[in-house]
Amino acid sequence: MKVIEHIKKGNISYVSHIDSMRVLQRTLIRANINVKLSEGFNPHPVTYTSHPLPLGVESEQEFFVIANDDMSAEQVLNAFNNNIPSGMLAVKCYDCIKNPNFAKNVNYCEYLVKGNFLQYKKEIENFQNEKCWLIKYDFKGTEKEQDIAPLIHSLKVYNKGLVMIIATGNPNLRPDRVVSAICDKLALSQKAFDIVRTKQLVINNDKILTAEEFLQEYIK
H-type helices in the chain, by residue range? Predict the structure, then answer.
């Protein structure tokens, strides 16, 4: 197994997760990177990704896992980068003994919301102590309600912006909904901010592992 760590930045952040998967699959073909096929009546390349990004959210850390064992990690990295759009360039490639299953094991992500929140630092950081924080949002034309309080691990304000660690996967909390909820509480007119996923995390019993730390037990 090879684990390709790549970015998703610029205009390509507005490409859906499904279409991004197509870009990744076609890149493997153009790069002549062999991928094992699944068994059964409808064989398909064995690949896995980390949790989908909301449309418009950039990322400094995405993972693409492929079933390849006839190339070195360096060969895969070079071939991948020679054929992928610049907005999805790989930064590392790991040779692993098996699929780390990011979709199952990663349960929190860190996001940077770019903007000046310093004057609201105390209020925003106190929001993480809310026992119940109900928000409403539109989902396919239907109004939904969600209690986001138990899905927020931390909210911290720095000079560069707001850094938040929130639940990802099942249950899942979209970063743009947190930003919108904060803006509503503070009565801010601006609700659209640039958001970047900076880290993928595994949190168990308050022990936080970065994706790199989590990967160590899988690397050959």
Answer: 17-30, 73-81, 102-105, 121-127, 175-186, 211-215
Compute the CA torsion angle 179, 165, 89, 20 (nearest 10 deg). Answer: -60
Of 80-89, 108-117, 198-207, the range with the lowest mean pLDDT is 198-207
Confidence label for 38 from pLDDT (cuts 50, 70 and 90):
confident
Contact 195, 162 (CB under 8 A): no
Cβ distance 161 to 117 under 8 Å? yes
| Gap between the Cα atoms of 113 and 175, Å rounded | 9
Query: What pLDDT shows up at residue 220?
Result: 85
The phi, psi pair for 9, rounded to 5°, reads -135, 160
**Cβ-Cβ contacts under 8 Å for 22 (sequence gap 6 or more):** none
Rounded Cα–Cα distance for residues 123 and 157 (Å): 10
pTM above 0.85, yes or no: yes
* Contact present, 173 and 151 (Cβ < 8 Å): yes
Q: Which residues pair with 109 in a beta bridge?
A: 166, 200
Give the pLDDT score at 192: 79
